[in-house]
Write a structure and sequence with these properties.
The N terminus is likely disordered. The chain has 13 helices and two strands. Strand 1 and strand 2 form a beta hairpin. Helices cover 60% and strands 2% of the residues. By secondary structure, the protein is mostly helical.
Length: 253
Amino acid sequence: MRISIAILTLLITLVSIPPLGAQELVDPTATRTLPAAEEDYFPFEDDFDEAFVATADPLEPFNRAMFWVNDKLYFYLLKPVARTYRVVPEPARVSVGNFFSNVATPVRLANCLLQFRFIDAGREVGRFAVNTTWGIGGLFDPARKHLGWQKKDEDLGQTLGYFGIPAGPYLVLPVFGPSNPRDAVGRVGDGFLDPWPYVLDETWEVIAVKTYERINWLSLDRDTYEAIKREQLDPYIFIREAYTQRREAMILE
């Protein structure tokens, strides 16, 4: 039953995830100072190399079709809801993001251990303890602000890459956005490490929490995807290469 709930939650959560993986792309807010938690939402480096080598994309016709579907979903549903939610003061939304990040510690911790990053694993444990207590249930991030303990973003897709599992061809998933077979499997695996299906009894409660988490995330986005659409001749190719380069960099880190 728990496994069924976890799978269903993973699928429903898709409805509220920014469709083009904006969290993996360029930060259009680089000219301003971001609150600590907000920086985590836009991790792609400023020095993206536009002279990239094209990613293998044998499924391009399918991928472009999914790109179009995700594009419409983003503009007609997800972003309007998130913009409405911006009536909530930004510091409050950042604190909500901190809270959800703290709850997701098991995913990062498990993948640090799987990659034998024991120092990073220890830091994740320390961050959780400090932020849960000193940070008032994870609403604040004193571990980062006062102790300099940076969150280590590790997931199962990176872990599989660490062990030499090839990424496979580029793949655009409906609603999920940019991915590849390795990262798609990783997403499913990480879903079983998500604490919410194990602490909430009702499926609808899990769905509501996960949906709210993603809407809050998107409310903090400064129109990343809109900037890409405006500035790139072919946003599909830009996003494809940006995603691929970032994932490779994270694995090699």
